[in-house]
Amino acid sequence: MGYEIYFTILINLIFSLYINYVVTIPYMDEEFHLDQMQHYLDSDFAYWNPKLTTPPMLYFLNYPFIILLSKMGFNILTSCRLINTFIYPTITFLVLSKSFQNMQKALLFSILPTIYFYNFLFYTDTLSITLLSLSFQLLQSKYYFISSIFSLCSVMSRQTNILWIVYICIKDYLDQNQTKLQFKDPRLSILFHINALFNMIFRDVKIIVKNYKYHISILILFIGFIYKNGGIVLGDKDNHNLVFHAAQIMYFLPVLFIYFPINWDTLLQYTQLSIKRLLLSRNAKFTYLIILIICLQIVHYWTHIHPFILSDNRHYVFYIWRKILSKDFYRYGLCFIYALIIVILSRILIIRKEQTFQLILLFIFTTLSLIFSPLIEPRYFSIPLLFFYYHCQFAEQTLKKQITVFTLINCIIIYVFCEVQFSCDFPQCRFMF
Question: For the residues 145-159, what does the mean pLDDT come to?
């Protein structure tokens, strides 16, 4: 293992001590999670906190660890945070090291700023990613039944993971049949690729059912759950109803562009190349114009403004919305950048000859996972980024630079969270994603 891994372990320990020393009472959603955990520890399994939207897998899995840590003198809040900080991320890192076949790329994802901060609080996101990563790796290793168990646990930690369970099954099937979907021209239309996929699926339906019957059962159970529950969330339904919020994809694009693990000099070269092509090529201008019109339509018709974005000034998104996205000049002006990012990333992937079909599929599932979320939450971008990282190969030196930059960003985020407080209508007011 490289020095970056040992340094990250040290940083995690320092951040954990720092946050637990400064923030001694539950912060934001920790209050609801901790209340539920305490009732489970008291053997009150019939209780459900009405503010919780996700299933109880987090509390079931934490239960034995908290019992053990309590005997060592840790209180329940610190115990829950320590589990999130050290146990689940460590498992994720080890699993991704095998999935990526690259420890540095696994480390890069482990310190991704959109998710790293939540490792130090008692939230569901860290466990959700751990279980999904396990399910994915086991599926890749052909342990279908064991993978389905972790898939079920993953969905029981965060419902939207059901989409990613479907995705990893389709991806596994494609990996087994990739030679049948390799076309000479990587720029073939999306419809062409989708048509080829469906034809192959209809031909292999018996094989698919045989291999993925347990995962299909989970999907059927989930559909039954939605019907019985009257929706996807468990509690606080008034604030978490599904809405069509296609603008989420526009918000994801800059994050993907910034976090894309490629040398920034190379990224600048691709940007210059794309702009030059736009200026010189009539076809490129026409393509960009079509993409721009689509982006403008999405932002105009399918932007959802959740009350939390307007009222909760503890999140960075509150200020991004108030200062930038709420103003028409910036909201629509950014569409020119969104369209350019699409052109640049497409250019990168075509030139680098990444798996076009796989990336189209990934973008479809990324879209489905984001466009029905009413809230703008950067942490929801983490799982799509995980699979984008999986598909793309990058130089070791680039990964080292990205690890350094991500570490600096995380240091700033955690320092601001711990040291900058302000007055508001809540018990504690600190800045966070």
Answer: 97
Residue 299 lies in a domain: yes
Q: What is the pTM of this model?
A: 0.92
Contacts for 384 with CB less than 8 Å, ≥ 6 apart: 252, 256, 362, 365, 366, 369, 370
pLDDT 10s digits, 240-278 = 778 899 999 999 999 998 887 666 667 788 888 888 888
Over the stretch 314-328, which tens digit does the pLDDT of each residue have? 888 999 999 999 999
Per residue in 163-189, pLDDT tens?
999 999 999 998 888 766 665 555 555
391-400 exposure pattern, b = at least 16 Cβ within 10 A, e = fewer = ebebeeebbb
The count of structural domains within the chain is 1
User: Does 431 reside within a domain?
Assistant: no
Residue 346's contacts (CB-CB under 8 Å, 6 or more residues apart) are none
427, part of any domain: no
As a whole number of angstroms, the distance between CA 375 and CA 316 comes to 13
Domain with 190, as residue range(s), is 3-419
For residues 287-296, one letter each, b for 16 or more C-beta atoms within 10 angstroms of the residue's C-beta and e for the rest, the string is: bbeebbeebb
Give the residue carrying structure tokens 């040290």. Answer: 10
Helix (H, G, I), strand (E, B) or coil at 361: helix
DSSP of 196-244, one letter per residue? HHHHHHHHTHHHHHHHHHHHHHHHHHHHHHHHHHTSS-SS-GGGS----
Residue 424 lies in a domain: no
